[in-house]
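User: Okay, second chain of the day. Same drill as before: sequence in, structure tokens out.
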Amino acid sequence: MSDPESRIRNISDTARWVAVYRARETQRKDAVFCDPFAQRLAGERGEQIAALMSFAEKNSWPFVARTWLIDQVISSQVKLGTEMIVNLAAGLDARPYRMNLPASLQWIEVDLPEILTYKEDVLRSQTPACHVERVRLDLSDVPARRELFSELGRQANRALIVSEGLIIYLDEKEVTSLARDLAVVPSFQHWVLDLTSPALLKMLEKKIGAPLDEAGAPLKFAPREGPDFFKRSGWKPLEIHSVMHAASKLDRLPFFLRLIAKISSPVFQAKRPWSGVCLLGRE
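Assistant: Same drill. Structure tokens below.
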């Protein structure tokens, strides 16, 4: 798998890679979610990239558990009255097409033009469960980002921000800036994100870091404070879910990790490999 087509070229290619694991989960008889669009969205390039990432190929359970956990948070928040979902770095996420969502829900996808155009082409004949709007925007463009957030904030009273697979690619300064920009919008009531401990980041850098570095998408963010990092930016942790313990519950862990999950704490620990899905609320 050394030909150029098998390699990650840019940050958008990581969306094709991760879609492969959603497709494989969907094909299982005991699938914990169904994403009938994931295989088409991943495409041949997604499969080629996944084959190159041998460590992730043997450890795809975090992607499955993370997706399932965020699905649960979204469903719960919608039932509690969320009117808008703002999906940052939406990539090839097909949730508004595959989840049971009210038709009145506004779903806003924000990402780079290339990946959103590709997704639109693949899903052109499909009808989403709710209203979907796609915004082509580089989130590193701070003035444009703030303008968008302000505009969206006026369109709903209660919004949930989703940023699956995003902040690990940002540095601490960038995460802080994004968190503060979100916090100043009163209607942005909640934010669900995935988080990695410093120990796990170090492991991932060794196992899958090289191809990501070559593509200009290095793994960066893993705060020693864990979910409490966001308190300084106006957010407080409301729910913290260990990805490993969720994977154990879903029966997706390899045997040796099942044993570790039984004796380990689900609580964030900076010095141990840990990943989680966190629901944040406004301070």
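The domain at 60-282 is CATH 3.40.50.150 (Rossmann fold).

User: Thanks, on to the next one.
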